[in-house]
UniProtKB/TrEMBL annotation:
Full protein name: CG4335
TM spans (from-to): none
Cofactor(s) required for function per UniProt: L-ascorbate; Fe(2+)
Associated pathway: Amine and polyamine biosynthesis; carnitine biosynthesis
Lineage: Eukaryota, Metazoa, Ecdysozoa, Arthropoda, Hexapoda
Superkingdom to which the source organism belongs: Eukaryota
Amino acid sequence: MLSLRRRLWQAAAASLSRRCLSVRIINERNIELQPAAAAAAEERLIFPGVWLRDNCQCAKCFHANSQSRQHDWDKFDTQVRPLQLQLNAEQQQLQVRWSDEHESSYGLSWLRERSFEPQAQREYLQRDYRPAMRLWAGAQFEQVAQRFDYARVMSEDAALQQWLQALAVYGVALLHGAPLDAGVVRRLAERVGFIRRTSYGEEFVVQAKPGAQNYAYLSTPLPLHTDLPYYEYKPSVNILHCVVQTASSGGSNLLVDAFHIAERLRQEQREHFERLCSIAVNWNDIGSEAGQQFHNIWRQPVICRDADGAYTRINHSVPQRDSHFTVPLEQVQPWYESYAKFVRLARQDAHSFKLQPGDVLSFNNLRLLHGRTGYDDTEQNSRYIVGAYMDWDIIYSRLRVLKRQQ
Ligand SMILES: [Zn+2]
């Protein structure tokens, strides 16, 4: 079954197709589809010839079973030109004869869905690439952190999709009612895809451990941080299952949307923001786990953005920042000032809440900072959390497939 949105999209495409009565070559290379009604001038669609030729759907150019292009790209003529066009209204097809003597045929609704109009491109990216993130302040946590029933997520695809969608948009989502066994995080990760393994194994247990090799395995307060900033390929999503919660007043989780903090810094204190975006920090982790020694280092600024300026990743960890700071001398003091600003803004905005046994907290480890208040760890007063990681590649893929099946 197709989603309502996709059906509406296709209906719109079909109705446009019926009105598409003219087609012409423009600038010798491109093809323009024009609806008959002059009123619909904004729906004029222009398709670059080179792109059309590249995306020929014939069996020689396109392998339908694998949905893959199969040109010999060594021979592909980027200067290819359309020589002759024909619109087949009955079959809703556009036929093109090319300067390289090839002939192609394109469905009009196929073309419409690949419109180069900026608005249509934005809609495609939000629908099929990734849903737009909505940033939030700590005070909004109760409104944005949606809660889902564990059993329904495990058995109903619609509930699974809602959970993953909330996680993608807000960077945090909670499940409740999970059984109190150590296998929950694995079953959840396998419901989505598979667990992301790290130096600390697949599932990890967060509890006070004598002789701990990682700062998280203490009962002292755990300051805000992201996990594994010292990995280039940093785990995307943290899932934490509360099996036993301490009866002491501590042991609360702290969460903050660090993309929101970065955005505040960008708007209010541009100089600090730019510095945290540009100065690379050496994040590191030295230790051993299950008899295996490791020494991880990854160099990257605190705030990372893509070419469009969209936030992609935040790195922050007090214990796991290398004492080697390989920047020019004069950058050191300013960097500390900027980092302190960022960390204090985050601390002020952090939301505190306490998981109950059976709760599962999932959050975006590339975006949120998390921490924990200290607690008294005694035999009567313990805390037992099982965690695991998943990766966005696997989650987004699952989400796209679920949406398609709707
Ligand atoms: Zn072809």
